[in-house]
Here is the input.
Amino acid sequence: MRPTGKLHLGNLVGALQNWIELEDHYESFHFVADWHMLTTDYADTAELRSNVQEMVTDWLAAGLDPAKATFFIQSRLPEHAELHLLLSMVTPLGWLERVPSYKEQLENIRDRDLHMYGFLGYPVLQAADILMYKANAVPVGEDQVSHVELTREIARRFNGFYGAVFPEPQVLLTRAPRLPGTDGRKMSKSYNNAIYLSDPPEVVSKKLATMITDPARKRRTDKGNPDVCPVFDLHKVFSTAPHIDQVNRECRTAEIGCLDCKQILAGNINKGLEPIQKRRRPYERDPEKVWAILEEGTEKARKVAQETMREVRAAVKIDYSSAPTGANG
Here is the structure.
């Protein structure tokens, strides 16, 4: 995950809850993708350290367990950069230019210059991140399937040149509902429409009070349509079944107003956030606990990465330390 600071409800339901479930079934690696962050935000790194700390604090608060999985920082492992370089030698330029998100972000991100090699080549770095740990499965939503397929193609091409070093990772499709923000668009920090995992109850209630609803329901006495209401979309994720049924029924008959509907939602969201925020407090009081977890996990990941790179160097025939005794240097 790219370190953008505190995480929001969209991150929780789109990634973290899936990761928590997978930790019980897979050997999992969760890493801070700070090099990936630089592919788009290279010009401003002032908040990077604090963003890493806040993000990983939210991982721990949400319930990710460093006793079950490995937490590490990408840039602390130069092996990732080395494998990225070697994979880039065999990756055709056309493969990168056809990545859907490449053109999409070039068109949509106008406030910075993305015509950089690092941005074009980030899928190769992503492939290195995956292949370094010989991953058999990568948990992604449907919008990320093409990235895993590119990793498979790169692994296949590398293996074709140098022998069977890497398995071809499989897509592990995970539940990733599109969570609306307070303005109805996808919840995103960049849209300033997010409810954060660390928001206190009064802030959650205040944000929801301004959230858009069914645009056709202009007066309290108007009948509403929950099917087109972003607030009801949040109810379906965070509210209890009785509350979902109540809102679905009473909104259509105007028995319940939008304000009451939002108050019910706020209560359910705050109830769900309470244990998360309780787990967050010890790490807020002592941030060094977060960095200690990252340090321990990074050393664990380093051992795996070093072993992989020994195999890679030998396969590419650049492991000169294994030259026969007496051979000329």
Remarks:
- The chain has two domains: 9-179+287-322, 199-282.
